[in-house]
Amino acid sequence: MKQTFISKKNTIILSASGLAVLILFTVSFVLFNVNNTKKRFVYIFPSADKSVYVLESRYLSKPQERLSRQKQSEYYLRKFVDDLLLGATTERTKLLFCYGTQVQSCFIRDNTVYLDLSKDLLRPQSDCADIKEGAALLIMNIKRNFKDIKKVELFVDKVLAYDGADLKITQFYE
Length: 174
Hints:
There is one protein chain. The protein has helices at 2-35, 69-86, 131-145, and strands at 38-46, 53-61, 103-109, 112-117, 151-156, 159-162. By secondary structure, it is of the alpha+beta class.
């Protein structure tokens, strides 16, 4: 009789402990999701030493105001491309494009990104990738981090430079 009472008591204690752990886990999970104000992105940069790529993981803050899904995607895309153009935080990497290249406009329509960059992209510098490699890496970065994007159209100073099929950057070298 005493043995049964002790085993019932242990069962009750174990059940209560399990319930407490479950409640604690649920509360911490909910608080994490409510207070999670950043989204993770992976950036790919060319190495300055070898013909390899360097990966960086960064977190971008969520928008302050509530946005539609479309506007939220454009918000993250713009911040992502701005960060990508600034370059890696680690040393011994090249910039995708020459220093000073800026986003003039950036939006998404029908799973296609329309990205217009400044003509500073065309200035050759030794510490950046060549233009074709930079454009290819820019597109690869966008498609890797934004899974619903099917096509990227790249413009340089409002002139089409890449339409998803052919890189037309060479027309700017006149």
